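Good morning,

Attaching, inline, the backbone tokens for the sequence recovery test we're adding to the shared suite. The designed sequence is right after.
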């Protein structure tokens, strides 16, 4: 039994070491030759449907280097030197090769779904319907016009709440809290475990409203940051022009967007402060939330987004909402309408005509992230579907790529790890019996 436990313990240690070491090793990899203009799966990509998986290999260390000088280079230099970053990626890893194979299988499945009738399972219907969209051309500006008209028809600030809820429904992200903010217009709204009682799920309202990745992009004054903000203003103006505005109107609207987002950035908490749960755990009743932001009709918003009743509300950054309320009161309606038009255009851009797609890529992916070329459209669509229809896509993928024998093998491995961990816990002396349970 001791030998078995030792073997299992070593197996677990090896698995743990593999995943720990895989991350620092995984920085760049082979060029997959993605074609930014391709809407279909190319022959070179089809050949990688079952890519060679990378495994932990001690021979990858560069023995010509001293690990005491730079352990990262000692462990990774040989592999990274042999595997340049693909032009359509900003980060790469040994794991990405496996991920690419999975995406390729999804793409081939969706191509078939575009040519056939969806099968009965609900998740397959969702997946196949999305597949049809993947293999059709991107939407033109006509699809944007009804939404732009909806914003233009707003007559008073009281109607802004309804548009916020509508935008949160149109585009994913309002429920996806990130390190800097929730990436959605005005603010984020989601359900989260209560900080004080994890058995409860409560509503959480988070700072948001920015188009750039974080507040520092608006506030830092070094030369590069100032230049980036100028490029952002130029990008917003160009996108307004592509959406049909005159040069003069586009320039005025871009100035309004930049002014509002900069003001929101000043009110946001920095990401270091947000790491401490005590700073985020600001409990409020719905009445207190209403009082905090009187310009937002929370009863209307909660009804429109179909939010269930919450025991209380977590407002991550009360100061942000006080500042946003002041902006809603003081800034004219036309500026807010320009901001909402921009949020609509910015979030819809990847799905519109080629000019919009190219301009959006050039700023957000090339200028900000350093990506050299856009991914083929089918890969972008699969990425978005995985984000928005993860459960449906996952079930359809498992049906095809994870047969019962694979499931049995993985479960056997998991159970072996569980037994090993259980045995290890039983032998430790510092844990009480109640803790071990």
């Amino acid at each position: 039994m001791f030998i078995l436990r030792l073997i299992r313990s070593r197996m677990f240690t090896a698995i743990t070491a593999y995943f720990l070491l895989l991350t620092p090793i995984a920085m760049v990899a082979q060029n997959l030759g993605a074609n930014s203009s391709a809407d279909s799966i190319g022959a070179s990509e089809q050949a990688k449907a079952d890519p060679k998986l990378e495994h932990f290999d001690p021979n990858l260390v560069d023995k010509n280097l001293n690990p005491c000088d730079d352990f990262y280079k000692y462990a990774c230099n040989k592999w990274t030197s042999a595997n340049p970053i693909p032009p359509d990626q900003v980060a790469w890893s040994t794991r990405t090769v496996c991920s690419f194979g999975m995406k390729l299988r999804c793409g081939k499945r969706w191509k078939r779904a575009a040519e056939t009738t969806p099968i009965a399972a609900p998740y397959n219907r969702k997946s196949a319907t999305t597949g049809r969209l993947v293999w059709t051309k991107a939407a033109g500006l006509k699809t944007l016009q009804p939404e732009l008209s909806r914003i233009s028809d707003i007559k008073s600030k009281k109607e802004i709440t309804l548009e916020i809820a509508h935008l949160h429904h149109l585009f994913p992200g309002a429920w996806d809290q990130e390190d800097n903010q929730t990436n959605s217009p005005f603010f984020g709204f989601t359900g989260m475990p209560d900080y004080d009682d994890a058995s409860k799920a409560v509503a959480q309202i988070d700072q948001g409203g920015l188009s750039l990745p974080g507040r520092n992009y608006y506030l830092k004054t070094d030369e590069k940051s100032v230049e980036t903000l100028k490029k952002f203003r130029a990008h917003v103006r160009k996108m307004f022009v592509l959406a049909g505005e005159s040069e003069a109107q586009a320039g005025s609207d871009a100035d309004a967007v930049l002014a509002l987002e900069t003001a929101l950035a000043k009110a946001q908490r920095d990401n270091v402060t947000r790491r401490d749960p005590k700073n985020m755990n600001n409990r409020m009743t719905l009445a207190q939330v209403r009082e905090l932001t009187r310009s937002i009709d929370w009863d209307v918003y909660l009804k429109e987004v179909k939010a269930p009743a919450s025991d209380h509300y977590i407002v991550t950054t009360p100061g942000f909402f006080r500042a946003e309320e002041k902006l809603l009161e003081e800034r004219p309606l036309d500026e807010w309408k320009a901001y909402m038009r921009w949020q609509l255009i910015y979030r819809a851009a990847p799905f519109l005509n080629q000019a919009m797609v190219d301009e959006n890529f050039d700023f957000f992916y090339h200028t900000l992230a350093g990506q050299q070329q856009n991914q083929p459209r089918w890969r972008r669509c699969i990425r978005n579907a995985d984000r928005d229809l993860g459960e449906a896509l996952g079930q359809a993928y498992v049906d095809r790529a994870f047969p019962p024998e694979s499931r049995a093998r993985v479960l056997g491995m998991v159970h072996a790890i569980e037994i090993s961990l259980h045995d290890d816990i039983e032998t430790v002396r510092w844990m009480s019996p109640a803790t071990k349970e």
